[in-house]
């Protein structure tokens, strides 16, 4: 879907493009393209106080070393609940992690401080084109809830964009914690295709961002009569950045393929996951774009892009 400036799906408009933001450090608001737009997305504020550093990479290539971390000294990952590393099942390299949607998962020590700036990325593929239930790609578990989680979510009534990807961040490790959610409804065709997901938390800016295939797609509500209000008064736009984001430091575990809510794990992923990476610090949109497009021989390091700032 790269190269499209807009996509009309039923009663919504999805803005696509290389990035929904202008060049880094340029505080510009960019209105989503297409007809019937009623919302804008803003350039993320500069202010990443945490030096960017890769802390973990699980490539899931060797079944004999199922949880090997490509970062020296990084935490190993342990498959559980029947999760399997299968040759040829991944998107990159020699293999991938297969999960059954019922019990399968893989876990490790949390490789980043989720209370500070961090970035998590992964390649993911569902068993079906559009799953009919919420499914979790990755999360970081506390005692009662997940500090953050990235999910596929079926279409919700009155939300623009239909089925979408969500990144949710909880402020405290309590069952009823206040949360913020970033929603990306663009830049993907099918859940059964391989999609690259990246969640970025910029703690100084208190902003949570979600990229799909390197894109920052916003689905907005139609305003056919041009009165400045959505035609459906209950329509909610899907915006891939959430402000006022704050989180606790998850002490329990990083979870691939499930999330914790009210003290219990659930929302298991059904499909395959590959090349999970963790970074200390908030990566830029150009660095995320590099991870989602430069596939062959991409080293285990923070992408070096001079313009990224």
UniProtKB/TrEMBL annotation:
Domain LamG-like jellyroll fold: 116-286
Keywords, sorted A to Z: Disulfide bond, Signal
Annotated segments matching region Disordered: 27-50
SUPFAM superfamilies xrefs: Concanavalin A-like lectins/glucanases
Signal peptide residue numbers: 1-22
SMART domains for this protein: LamGL (SM00560)
Gene3D superfamilies xrefs: 2.60.120.200
Coiled-coil regions listed: none
Database matches in InterPro entries: ConA-like_dom_sf, LamG-like
Biased composition (Low complexity): 28-43
Protein name, as recorded: LamG-like jellyroll fold domain-containing protein
Protein's organism: Streptomyces caniferus
């Amino acid at each position: 879907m790269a190269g499209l400036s807009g996509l009309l799906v039923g009663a919504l408009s999805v803005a696509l493009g290389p990035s929904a933001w202008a060049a880094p450090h340029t505080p510009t608001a960019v209105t989503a393209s297409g007809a019937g737009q009623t919302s804008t997305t803003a350039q993320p504020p500069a202010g990443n106080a945490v030096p960017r550093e890769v802390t973990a990479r699980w490539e899931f290539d060797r079944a004999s070393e199922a949880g090997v971390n490509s970062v020296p000294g990084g935490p190993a990952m342990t498959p559980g609940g029947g999760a399997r590393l299968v040759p040829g099942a991944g998107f990159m390299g020699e293999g991938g992690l297969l999960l059954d949607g019922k019990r399968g998962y893989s876990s490790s020590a949390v490789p980043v401080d989720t209370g500070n700036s961090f970035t998590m990325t992964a390649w993911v593929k569902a068993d079906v084109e559009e799953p009919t239930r919420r499914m979790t790609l990755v999360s970081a578990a506390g005692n009662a809830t997940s500090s953050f989680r990235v999910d596929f979510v079926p279409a919700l009534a009155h939300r623009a964009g239909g089925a979408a990807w969500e990144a949710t961040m909880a402020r405290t490790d309590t069952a009823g914690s206040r949360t913020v959610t970033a929603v990306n409804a663009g830049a993907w065709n099918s859940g059964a295709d391989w999609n690259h997901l990246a969640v970025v938390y910029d703690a100084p800016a208190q902003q949570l961002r979600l990229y799909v295939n390197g894109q920052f797609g916003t689905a907005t509500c139609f305003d056919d009569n041009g009165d400045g209000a959505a035609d459906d008064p209950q329509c909610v736009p899907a915006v891939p950045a959430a402000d006022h984001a704050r989180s606790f430091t998850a002490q329990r575990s990083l979870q691939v393929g499930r999330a914790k809510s009210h003290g219990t794990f659930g929302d298991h992923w059904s499909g395959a996951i590959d090349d999970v990476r963790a970074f200390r610090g908030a990566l830029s949109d150009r660095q995320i774009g590099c991870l989602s497009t430069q596939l062959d021989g991409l080293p285990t390091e923070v992408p070096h892009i001079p313009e990224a700032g």
